[in-house]
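Homework help board

Subject: predicted structure for assignment chain

Our instructor gave us this sequence and asked us to write out the predicted structure in token form, then describe one feature. I got the tokens but I'm not sure how to describe them. Can anyone check?
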Amino acid sequence: MKAIFYLLVIISMSSCSIIKSKYFKVSKSEIEDKVAGAWAAKMIGVMYGREMEFKALGKTYDDVIPWTPQLIEKALLEDDIYGQLSFMNSLVKHGDAATTYLLAQDFANASFPLCHANLQARKNIFDGLKPPFTGSPEYSMHADDIDFQIESDFIGFIHPAMSQEANAMADSIGRIMAYGDGLYGGMYVAAMHSLAYKENNVLKIVTQALHAIPAKSSYAQCIQDVIDCYKKDPNDWKKAWAFVQDKWAEHDICVPYHEFNIDAKLNGAYIVIGLLYGNNDLQKTMEIAIRCGQDTDCNSANAAAVLGIIDGYERIPLKFKSHLPSIADKNFLHTEYSYNKAVEETIKLIEKNIVAHGGSIKDNDYYIKIQKPAFKGQLEQSYPNKIMSHQIRMSDNNLWDLSGNWKEFVYGDGDPDLYKVAQSPNDTLTVDFEGSGISLLGSWNNDGGQADVYIDDIFVKRVDTYFREEAGKYDVNRAHIFHSMNLKPGKHRLRLVVADQKNEKSVGNKIYVERAVIYKDR
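My token output:
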């Protein structure tokens, strides 16, 4: 009889252990504090790094980083926040009927301006494409850009300790504008936020989050390099920065001709450098992420939000949050969301997700069914082993053959580069090049026309350069009006012929061309 009793005790203890390991019990008040901390830290981080954005390119930022509590109010104007609030609003608006297609339509038709991967996704949607094609490398040279990484925080925010569900949502929403490393950046950031609700060891968070993406991806390898550097020397973040710079900084496909770099994995590495070497100190974490350079406000904000969840709102230093209560009910630009409403809606979505994914809510406690990060898809890489060979600017007159009615054009106002603009149907452009890929850069515009593009006299596609507004000004944000990246290495000829037809919304047949970027196999 005693033996049976002891056996039942052992079974009971074992069952309790299984239940304890399977579910994460956390009070509503603690979740509320962590959500408030997440959004507050996101706002603080973006404004702490805003003034330094792209001021350090290929080098560290070594000047003073200013802060006053009132700076946080300008976070209400930041695309880093209102962009992802747009997605969260769509989830709330559509409820159980929400699909990636509906989210994409809402995002494309929103009033706010977009750049790079987001802008290309909007153009692709307007051209009739649907996710996942809107973010695929076949239709976007921006597939590996930072855009989804910037916008993915909310996915982790609404999935505490449910990293697999966060991954599934990221894999869906992220394909609106990303693919490969651009997609993995968002998955990784969302996984860190999801893990941060339960885990306060930053090294464990950044390491475990790697299980949310394929280990053989260049994004995961880049992050692993940072972790390895930290383990070798946890006191010198500049060694890690230098290692990453030497190994990964040349890999920006969308702007390979400029030190400006919005590659997701490089900026993701800066997030992790800030988190690891910041030693759970909010200011130090943001400062290191900023001093790594490039997209400083985005990287600082992503890193800060992880600590915002770990520490909660109450533990954020007063010097960073003292002004927040006075603006907490003001709306973010282009949204109907204030800080307080963002927190409120996040908590509602958390509660919905807890119940939907095997957890429960009892009295003032949440019982969350724990999910370990796990990537379940197939490895994808946008343009593996491609690097820029050279570029051909339109000012290199002897390298272009133009026939028909082409006129010179310069945007001015800080953009001195020479464009040539086709005016009429049958205007033709020809350029010879040697490489295994080419992208033709210029602008889309409301007077943009259509053109047929041939490579080696074989028709490739018709491009439509109409857009509702000018898009392509400034050399780091040119519109990729055509690209072909899987050519056999060697000599090739691209020919563009302006078509008779045009988009019915366009007021002209113009084709704006500023340069060609030629790629080669590594």
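Reply (TA_rk): Your tokens look well-formed. For the description, you could write something like this. The first helix runs from residue 2 to 22. That's the kind of observation they're looking for.
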